[in-house]
Request: fold
Amino acid sequence: MPSVLIKTYGCQMNERDTEQVASMFLAGGYELTKDEDTADIILINTCSVREKAELKAQGKMGLLCARPHAKPWVVYGFMGCMSQSCGQDLFRIIPRLDIVTGTRQYHNVYQLCNRLLRSRLGNPPTEPLRRGAHICHTEHEDGFQNAIRDHLPPSGHCTAFVSIMQGCDMRCSYCIVPSTRGEECSRPMDDILREARELVDRGVKEITLLGQIVNRYGKEQPLINGRSAFVRLLEQLSDIDGLERLRFTSPHPIGFREDLVRAYTYLPKLCSHIHFPMQSGSDRILALMRRPYKNEKYIRLCEAMREARPDLAITTDIIVGFPGETDDDYQQTKAAVERIQFDNAFIFQYSPRRDTIAAAMPDQICLRVKEERNHDLLETVNRIATARNNALVGTLQHILVESLSKNNPNRLQGRTSQNKPVMIPAGSAAIGSIVPVRITESTGFTLYGEPA
Ligand code: 5AD
Ligand code: SF4
Reply:
């Protein structure tokens, strides 16, 4: 049986795309492997949001291609955002690379790889073995929407991602995504509901809806009874028997209206966690970022959601060192973090991306200042996150038991509605069940508990 190894960098959208590609290989008679030395096909699903992520994937592939391999016919391929953006250039950087496919070609990856592998395995091979085949597909194929389609979740998983829209029509000045993922495009609601029901039939308890700006789902559709297409989708998904939990990521303050805030009051399956990117606490920087809202609006939305759902956990993304960010701008970001009391935040040092407006802006911030602000903000974020987690000790939380702990086979790991990881003793609950747990300990980031 031929084998394929797929390595994934980047966001949950990439993880979900990898799952889909993997399921096509499985259906084609391949097995999944983690062994770099014996895999017949080695694929890397790539991210291009920051330069570091791109270099990491290129470095990894460079190393893989350079080391000896048990199978001379091995096929090497890149897929996803970085290959969409770099295309043919990648063959110049890594000559032994065979296949490069973009973000609207995921559905073709299996066929391209399988065909190349078969031609190399022929007797005699019709394709040279030790030279890159240099096959590149990054075009935006018509009907690519079918690429966002159903897939089998990896067996035994009680959580699943469901992609509901792709692409982004915003033009944040720092962001490469609109050029790698293309225009916004939503999936029909019926397809999503059908996929969700199938997942639930296979034992999935928790679904996370994915989209670049997930709350803009179906934005061309009219409001019905004051409710957007996104809120109506949440309602219909909530009606599915057997589905216990619903999450979505990531929303944007634009198009985040009262109806979505209100959904937290009457949809109990909607989890008490939202990952809500703030990016900056300075209105001047938000304007330079072309984020069309003021910090006060962002804060008001957080407060309204917490009013609707008092135990809501809020996490965020913040960029430090955006071009022109003064110390005063940075202090405003820090003040917003203190005011909102995030449960956690991902802090990113601004990374100039090709063909973006911000990359050409004056007053680029030097690495030292970016690092200082990153370090300083991280201290604040960690202090608040630790305090919020410590405050959960002694409380009763319902956790969805997901798997054995990766680090300790004597423990099971699950997550609360607030998306906080909790460890419980192995054998104390069944994987896939939702159990009440008394939180007994917090290390600041991980919680420990006993089934109650
Ligand atoms: N530099 C640094 N961080 C970035 N992000 C997006 N583009 C850049 C960039 N050029 C961050 C944003 C976004 C997250 C996924 O990545 O905070 O929310
Ligand atoms: Fe990038 Fe802004 Fe679109 Fe998010 S909303 S994907 S940050 S352009």
